[in-house]
Amino acid sequence: MRTYLLRRLLWMIPTILAIFTITFFLMHATPGSPWDNQGRPLPLHVIENLNAKYGLDKPVWEQYLIFLWGILSRADLGDSYMRAGQSVTGLLVDYFPISLQLGLLAMTFAVIGGLLLGVLGALRPNTTLDYVTTFLSVIGISTPNYVVASLLVILLSIQFDLLPTGGWDGILSNRVIIPVIALGLGPMATIARYTRSAVLEVLSQDYIRTARAKGVSSRNVHIGHVLPNAMISVVTVAGISLVNVVTGSFFVESILNIPGIGRHFVTSVTARDYPVIIGTTLLYATLVMVMNLVVDIAYTILDPRIKFG
Predict the structure, then answer these.
(1) Who contacts 265 (Cβ-Cβ below 8 Å, separation ≥6)?
(2) Tell me: the pLDDT tens digits for 87-99?
(3) Could you give the residue range(s) of every CATH 1.10.3720.10 domain in the chain?
(4) HEC sequence for the chain
(5) Which of 63, 125, 146, 296 could form a disulfide with 251 if both were Cys (CB 3.0 to 4.6 A apart)?
(6) pLDDT tens, 25-73?
(7) Exposed/middle/buried for 63, CB within 10 Å: 0-12, 13-18, 19+?
């Protein structure tokens, strides 16, 4: 196990380097500059001074090496072009926890709801309950989160005046209800579908029939045999869904005016704020790789027969 973990961690280094390289050159290949969207045209001498200040007057390959050396030597992602005096590292530290809290709440909602819908549908296949859970799953999978967020604002905030239209006051505020549902509905539907399929497959296994033949109660069969063996595929989907929830918060945070890193990433893309784009991309790439590793480790916990060579 230790060798496997070390190998996976070491493989993250070239992967992150490749992502950084691709992101860097794609940004610089896009026509325009960070000073094109300032509301009004800047004088030429101001643009030249800004380019000299941030090193944008140098060849692209030299900018790449300077940026890379700053990351490797000082873990420095540079300063934001659009927020004078604000380092990218400080921006991520300030705003990513909000996106992370929102993502974890949405994922908790998705896992609980998805497991409940999936198990109910599997235990009562081809019944009205199963059809209802399937219908809800199809709606959740096919509806983008920004559409769900907009519909919830219209319905719950504007039409019935039950919830605020946006903003952020912490995870205990009622402002989190709309973004949590908007972000969690899609993953909940996906988890529900995978849970139903996995539970149905486990229910058809010989050892389940053997347990029932021995007189084990249905409750103990479901809790002690069915759910643990059905969770492997569900854990895979849940791990990927968590990353998708956090990264999918870009549009939801922008619509609902939530000051998370997702909203700042959207504004940095439109403003060509290169350091913020690179820093956010590397952060999410690292999160994806870490979650994949966590999911792989979870396999060995759920099924001791799985070993990593």
Answers:
(1) 250, 276, 277, 280
(2) 899 999 999 899 8
(3) 88-302
(4) CHHHHHHHHHHHHHHHHHHHHHHHHHHHHCCCCCCCCCCCCCCHHHHHHHHHHHCCCCCHHHHHHHHHHHHHHHCCCCECCCCCCCEHHHHHHHHHHHHHHHHHHHHHHHHHHHHHHHHHHHHCCCCHHHHHHHHHHHHHHHCCHHHHHHHHHHHHHHHCCCCCCCCCCCCCCHHHHHHHHHHHHHHHHHHHHHHHHHHHHHHCCHHHHHHHHCCCCHHHHHHHHHHHHHHHHHHHHHHHHHHHHHHCHHHHHHHHCCCCHHHHHHHHHHHCCHHHHHHHHHHHHHHHHHHHHHHHHHHHHHCCCCCCC
(5) 146
(6) 998 888 878 887 666 677 888 888 888 888 888 999 999 999 999 998 8
(7) middle
Q: Which pLDDT does position 294 carry in this prediction?
A: 84
Predicted TM-score (pTM) above 0.70 = yes
Whole-angstrom Cα distance, residue 256 to residue 245?
15
